[in-house]
């Protein structure tokens, strides 16, 4: 049974040559063809000699362990003392690894445990996300304070360009949406109040809802979907193209160059858009009351002036800068998180929109509770 790697003399099987990965397929085929492994498995009086092996690696050691068995391979130092110590240690290590069971069943968990684990993972991710947001807000605030007394470093051109993109270009969609929502609110209010003979209070309903809540909230949600996603996509594309690394290599601060103009633009744009939304919502309500309730525009304005104080307008407008800052910061932060692929850009763009809308509604709810407790 002579071959390039196996030699048989009476009751002795000698392994010859280089038992390495390069020869793995040939050695395996030779073992199967010569039926050496089967003979060693059945016979107990056959001696195996490893003295003629010139090179041995992990692949060859696996073949030898399969050939002679795990127990004999672990005792290789007793019957193959001529084998170098390194090769003996390799055979013993491979035998120990092959002795462990490979078909270990994974631990099974109940559906309740899996649900709780999933909730825990989500909470850990949310906590990490909020920590990153707070850290980024601190970094932005520190940069703003640092540049407050250094007008030379203000990016006025970039700020004006972002005001046009995020503010001026959003006026039509904000005005149209708030106008239609104002009309819907007035129509629903008129339908309900008509049963009580109090249709005149539809004017107060529209005024209170848009001056305090809907005007600024709808504008903020629109900008969260329209502008925060744009900020994330723009900065994410720069991150994937390594443009941000290039800016840092030139000694430029990405926060100062990319984030602050967007934040300042949002701080200027959102209050103006909220004002536009308030006026458009009132105009939609005035149209419905004029057509459905026979309330003239003059009566609408007189009732508005008599029943609604300027405090409601100031309360609604005071929330606009907070919403603007949160939306801009989240949009920019998610852009910096982009890893470099197109899929990552899409995922973080979606995340920025979801986070922005969630934070806007959360802050609005907290503000409503605060103003209610203050009696404003």
UniProtKB/TrEMBL annotation:
<dbReference type="Pfam" id="PF02405">
    <property type="entry name" value="MlaE"/>
</dbReference>
<dbReference type="GO" id="GO:0043190">
    <property type="term" value="C:ATP-binding cassette (ABC) transporter complex"/>
</dbReference>
<keyword id="KW-1133">Transmembrane helix</keyword>
<protein>
    <submittedName>
        <fullName>ABC transporter permease</fullName>
    </submittedName>
</protein>
<dbReference type="InterPro" id="IPR003453">
    <property type="entry name" value="ABC_MlaE_roteobac"/>
</dbReference>
<feature type="transmembrane region" description="Helical">
    <location>
        <begin position="353"/>
        <end position="372"/>
    </location>
</feature>
<feature type="transmembrane region" description="Helical">
    <location>
        <begin position="272"/>
        <end position="293"/>
    </location>
</feature>
<comment type="similarity">
    <text>Belongs to the MlaE permease family.</text>
</comment>
<keyword id="KW-0812">Transmembrane</keyword>
<feature type="transmembrane region" description="Helical">
    <location>
        <begin position="170"/>
        <end position="193"/>
    </location>
</feature>
<dbReference type="GO" id="GO:0005548">
    <property type="term" value="F:phospholipid transporter activity"/>
</dbReference>
<keyword id="KW-1003">Cell membrane</keyword>
<keyword id="KW-0997">Cell inner membrane</keyword>
<feature type="transmembrane region" description="Helical">
    <location>
        <begin position="313"/>
        <end position="333"/>
    </location>
</feature>
<dbReference type="InterPro" id="IPR030802">
    <property type="entry name" value="Permease_MalE"/>
</dbReference>
<keyword id="KW-0472">Membrane</keyword>
<feature type="transmembrane region" description="Helical">
    <location>
        <begin position="133"/>
        <end position="149"/>
    </location>
</feature>
<feature type="transmembrane region" description="Helical">
    <location>
        <begin position="205"/>
        <end position="225"/>
    </location>
</feature>
